[in-house]
Amino acid sequence: MKKYTKKMTHSLFSEILLQELKKYRDKKILAAFSGGKDSLAMLDFINKNKNIFNINIGACYINHGLRETAKRDEIFCQKYCEKHNIDFYTYNISKELEQDKNGGIESAARKYRYKYLMKILEKYNYDYIFTAHTYSDDIESFFVDLYTGVSLFTLGGIMYQNNKIIRPMLQITTEMVNDYLEENHLEPVFDETNNDIKYVRNRIRHKLIPVLYGCGSEFEKSIIKLQKESRMFNDYLYKKVSHVIIRQDNMVILKRYSFMELEYIEKEYLLGKMISLYCRVSKNILHETISFLNNNDSKRLDLPNGYVIEQSYNTIKIFNKDKVDDFCFNKTFDMPLLKTDDFQIDFLNELKDKQFVIRNRRNGDRLGNKKIKDLFINKQIELFERDRAVIIEENGIIIWVEYISKNNNIKFKRFGI
């Protein structure tokens, strides 16, 4: 990128972010705040200019518990927000990371970081989450993607928007950030792991990119051109495969038979796009997944970050395993209504005052003399629905099964997934 004087970079920083903030007039924004230079510059600028656009700003620090200095950084963020009257939230995700690091600590950290940011957004009615990814991060990500062996259609760079997540600083360089901090006498915290070259991104940042800049900055133009072509290819392929998508939000559902009719490159593109909603995608993951889907059996394949891909009769689904976790509730004598996040059961007449166990299926379950598994298969109930199906048991005997049974004294309602 072209070199500018400090005065020019400060002016560009302000000009770019003011144009961004204009898009979010009257909105409530949650800033992901680590105390590092990028997020500090972003939050400070938004806070100083929020009244121009009537923006309500809050900030959240996610403590990964991976560094001894993490608590120091959390305190720094909290004090900054207190000083500037910014609503502040914090989450410690160290326990989650300890239990879920098989797919790599970086991937798990990203998963839980966004999970808890979204929880705060929903709980406190924020409109968007702002993260401080910069132009420099975008260049690094290009090489990270090359290193991990992704496809041409995934080299389009960091997305400006992904649902509620906005990245308003993608035109901002590290140089602009540094000059803004200096002009405003701001001292960020420093994450010492940013220098640890055991991480791929850090090796690229400290070893590869300085060498490339040493040869001149022309490589940036080539990257920008390739990213543009990748986005064009991406748009073209999306038009070709969009008819296969039933939904893509907190889970993905695809039309199985329409998917199987796609060309290989279209399958690879669609799966890459859908899986990347939840975790980083590699060529190996895509090839393994397509091979798995070529098998006609109803089954599941594990993906990173606790997600699975499932194919059943008519659909292919991608979802988090916790959607099919075992559950078990007890209905007592004085409980005519049982309500959870997923379903509601009204017990009427003589069933009001009875005791029941409400659960999902277990191996060997029978309704009368028939295996529940066989009943589900005969009715072509999808695997996902089978594992979530509600079963009512009385004194160890199953009396009612969702999708199978009818009973006028049991009024069952399932809520959205």
What would you say this structure looks like, in words?
The chain is α+β, with helices and mostly antiparallel strands and 417 residues long. It folds into 3 domains: 6-132 and 167-216, HUPs (Rossmann fold); 243-321, 2-Layer Sandwich (Uridine Diphospho-n-acetylenolpyruvylglucosamine Reductase, domain 3), CATH 3.30.465.60; 325-414, no CATH class. It is 41% helix and 20% strand. Strands 3-2-1-4-6-5 form a 6-stranded mixed sheet, sandwiched between helices. A 5-stranded antiparallel sheet has the order 7-8-11-10-9. A hairpin with a 2-residue loop joins strand 18 and strand 19. The chain starts with 5 loop residues before the first helix and ends with a strand.
Number of helices: 14
Q: Point out poorly predicted stretches.
A: none
Shape: globular
Name the CATH class of the largest domain.
Alpha Beta
What is the rounded Rg?
A: 25 Å
Going across the biggest sheet, name each strand in turn.
3-2-1-4-6-5
CATH architecture of the largest domain: 3-Layer(aba) Sandwich
Number of spatially distinct domains: 3
Distance between the termini: 45 Å
Whole-number mean pLDDT? 89
The CATH superfamily of the largest domain is known as HUPs
Beta-strand content: 15-25%
Number of strands: 20
- Helical percentage: 40-55%
- Can you tell me the CATH topology of the largest domain? Rossmann fold
The major β-sheet equals: 6 strands, mixed
Derived structural class: alpha+beta
Question: Features of this protein?
Answer:
single chain; Uridine Diphospho-n-acetylenolpyruvylglucosamine Reductase, domain 3; 5-stranded antiparallel sheet; 3 domains; globular; 417 residues; Rossmann fold
